Amino acid sequence: MARKPTISPTKITTYLACPVKYKWTYVDPRGKWFMRAKSYYSFGSSLHSVLQRFHDEGDKGVQTKEQALAKLAENWVTAGYATPEEAAEALAEGRELIAGYVDAQAERPPGIQTIFLEKQLRDDLGEFVLIGRVDRVDELEDGSLEIIDYKSGRDATEPDELRDDIAMNCYQLLVRSKMPGKRVLSTVIALRTQSSTTVEPSEEEVEQFKQDLLALAGEILSRDYENLVPTVKEICPECDFLPLCRRNEEFAEEYEPREG
Ligand code: SF4
Q1: How far separated are the first and last CA of the chain, in Å rounded?
Q2: Any idea which of 100-104, 105-109, 249-253 has the lowest mean pLDDT?
Q3: CA nearest 206: which of 157, 150, 120, 145?
Q4: In the structure, which protein residues have their CB atom closer than 6 angstroms to any atom of ligand 1?
Q5: 148 conformational bin, left if phi > 0, alpha if psi -120 to 50, beta if neither
Q6: What is the arithmetic mean of pLDDT over 168-194?
Q7: What phi, psi does 85 have (nearest 5°)?
C-alpha cells in the first residue's frame, strides 16, 4: 500500500509563500540542485542543539553556562555563511544568546517536567499525515502542557501573531492528539531578548485551524504542479529557484525590469 503523503508546517509555509517554490522543494527533484544552505538555518540549528542538551535531564554534560557555551562552539554549523568572519560574528552573537538563556533559566519555577525535546510528532488526519518537530513540551505542576518554540531571530512575538502561527497551531493539534484532555499552552521564547509570549487557544480555535488545515492540505496535495506557471513575487530575488523560474519566458520578461 502506498504511504500517505505528509504535511508539515514547513511545507505549508513554503506553499503559501509560493506554490512554485513548493514544487521545486518537494515535488520536482530538479529543484534540489538549486537549493543552497542558509546561514539563518545554521544559526538556529546550532542554538537548538545546545538548548536540547541543556534541558535533557539525562544529559549531565550540559548543565552550566560554561558547558553550554563549550557545546555551542563544538556544534557550531558554518554552512551558509559567506565568509569565516561572518560565521565568527554569528558565533559571538550565539554565545550571548545562550548565556542570556541559561541565566534566565535560574528564574524557572520548580515542578516543571520536560516531556518532549526536539521531538517529531505525527497524527494521521485521513488523506495525509501531519508531522511537526516540537522544540520542547513541558508538563506544568497543575498537569497542563506547554509547547515551547525558540525563535533565534526575533526580539518578541505578539499574542495575536502567536495565535495565528501555522507551526504552533500544528503543534497544538499534534500534542492534543498525543495527550488528549489536557490544557495546552503555546509559548514562544525570543532568544535575543529572553522575552516569552504565551497564549492558550480555545478548543474552538484549534478545531477551526484543523478545518482550515484540511482544506489547505487538500489543495496542496492535489495541485497540478507540472503545469504551474511562476509569477513574479517580492521574494523572487532571494529565492534559490530563480534560475529555474527564469526559464519561463513570461516570467523572465516580467522579472527583467526589476533588475539593475
Ligand atoms: S523565483 Fe519566485 S516564482 Fe519562482 S519559485 Fe521562487 S518565489 Fe516562486
Answers
A1: 52
A2: 105-109
A3: 145
A4: 18, 20-21, 24, 230, 233, 235-236, 239, 241-242, 245
A5: beta
A6: 96
A7: -65, -40
Confidence class for position 257, pLDDT limits 50, 70, 90: low
- Give this prediction's pTM: 0.93
Position 227 confidence tier, pLDDT thresholds 50, 70, 90:
very high
H or E element that contains 74 = helix 65-74
Q: List the domains of the chain with CATH numbers.
A: 39-107 (no CATH), 113-220 (3.90.320.10), 229-260 (no CATH)
Q: What number is the average pLDDT over the span 107-116?
A: 89
- Residues of 106-144 as b/e, b for ≥16 C-beta within 10 angstroms? eeeeeeeeebbbeeebebebeebebbbbbbbbbbeeeee
Ligand 1: distance of its center to the CA of 251 in Å? 10
